[in-house]
Please model this.
Amino acid sequence: MQWKKHGQRRIYANQWVNLDLIDVEQPDGRRWEHHVVRLRHLAVAAVVNEQREVLLMWRHRFITDRWAWELPKGLIEEGESPEEAAAREVEEETGWRPGPMKPLIYAEPANGITDSQHYVFRADVATQIGPPTEKNESDRIEWIPLDRVRDMIDRREIISSGSLVGLLYVLMDDALR
Model:
């Protein structure tokens, strides 16, 4: 069953987020305005080393007032490919330069309310080039053994959707190898 769009209007806009009201009609004929959050797209990077450790950042998110581990990630800038954005974010946020980035998985979290696209990549090597240049991203950066990740997810130490999608795919991919 496909909903029909009859029009839309923007009710808020800035460089980070736009809020639209979409005039929709459901298959049963009901018609109403649905809120849609339009976000810039995101690139995420899972960097795994030879010791089967993944590069994670311990950070606080003020919106939810929660501390958790996350993969490096950030917005895709104008004129930048998702792959380039993922590599740039790893370098800026961690001080590690990832090797070749391979597409891992694509996801659209919360696609019933937002159009945010998450492009997740994997690198299997990285070189430390210095301290992070982005000073406001994390409290600490660590290489965490992959065999600890499942328990960390269960304890809600990893909660962001981009990190969860990427890490679960890495775990699944490694289990199948």
